[in-house]
User: Fold this.
Amino acid sequence: MRNKYIFGASSFLLLAFSFSTTLIAQEISSLVAINTPYDEQHPVISPNGELFYSVGFHPENLGGATDFGDIWMTKQGTSGEWENPMHVKSLSTSGNDVLVGFPDALTAYVYHSGDGVKIRQGIHQYARFGSEWNYVRPLEMGNFRNQGTHFSGRLSQDKKVIIMAMNSFGSYGNEDIYISEEIREGVWSSPVNLGTDVNTFSQELTPSISSDLKRIYFASNSNVSGRGRDIYTSQRLDLDSWTSWSEPEPLEQINTEGAELSYVLFDQDKSLAFYTSTQNSEGFGDILMITHQQEQWESVAEVLDQVDKKEDLKINQLAIKQDTVSNKEGLSKASTVVVGNTQALIVEDSIKTLIVEEERIKINRSLRVIDQQTKDALPYILVYTNAQGFKKTAANQEEFWLALDADQIKSFTISSESYIPVFVAETKKVANEIVIALQPISTGATIILDNIQFNRGTSDFADANSINQLDQLVEFLRANANVRIRLEGHTDNVGDPQLNKELSMQRASKIRGYLTLKGIDFERIRIAGWGGSRPLADNASDDGKAKNRRVEMIIDRLN
Assistant:
């Protein structure tokens, strides 16, 4: 066991720095098809929900039975069971191969130890085409060099950081944990050692990092018991550096006499986690899934801040109640925003009835969906993505508003038969009364896919909202098999006009690639790239440039 910090402070301070985690170490989904007599390690979930991982010493590996790891993949069937794994030869070499992460659904970063012929040691970029992967290039990463046989690493959720374990420059013992940050597309900083708060003269392996970049999980064999590797967690104490961390704490509930590695939260559901263990596998790793309860690690300042906010809430409620009594007409402020290519009227703070019940405020709110042309009310379906990443159809408006109040809605989609759906990602800006106008499906109808964002100067999807809107577009095309579309890419006027035109075409092509990957017929989608030649707004302002950087979807024709 690692030594703990000794706090020279009051009992309240000790309480405020308490750490707690609840883990139920049991297999909650059938992984029988995945786990074999060989070494399954380093699970990674793709944006499509597939499970990629490394398998060591498998006779079918490209390097044979002595190969430390090739990339394999499986996916869940309709009943939730994981299907028989497939060997992904197009991501594998005769050396050690580790999948680091997916910048988007059509791009993968893979570490190769080097095959001595074509592939040199490092992290490499691949592009997906159907079920195969095409090699793109190596990532530039300064003085990256792995001097050992082990490598593990993961791309952060925001795609800007790679956390990795290897034996490299400045390692304190064997493998240490390092961080590299993206500088620009394809170029990353030299790996930075996390320092002695985390790294020891033993091995630190298989790190992962939380979505807010404030907590890491990793394996280490630094415990004094002499047993196998255990999983630890540590909190980042200084957000301006990567070298100040809290004393690592073991996750006792999952650590066994065997070796535990690769603890990582399951992106599609933050209450689930993957890890690997040799406890029941005669020395080789098996992949397990467990339930994970969010850690609680609070400083004194954070605890006091919560108390202050609670008192402020009471004061604000009293002020609102008094204002409502003195002003019977209430308050209202209306504004119109654009959702996609659709105008949506949002009325903010429309106070019709205000009741203070202990520490809750109830406000009458409503959502109406209308035809953009006739203004007639439409029947609609509201599907939202909750905080765990699962999609759910709202049974009624009350469910929608309650989930929104509880901060359980990340995005939602409004759809109606024979109309183009509207996808809303900025749920924090949703007010108390919403009127959304839908466009009928007709030739020439156009919407701006404004929630599909790309990393600057690239055709790589930037965030989860981009994938969510792409998935909604897939559902729309599946439900309307007679619709053929045209995707048109546009940029602002900054930079070389010809390069902008090429970039706009690449982005439209990237969207088409995702749609076809999801089963939409290639022939139903045409693409065009206009660069900066068709602006919507004045390029003289930053807001205008942002509006001009877009991809439009146009209904090309109806069969």
Q: What stands out?
A: Confidence is low (pLDDT under 50) at residues 1-29, 296-363.
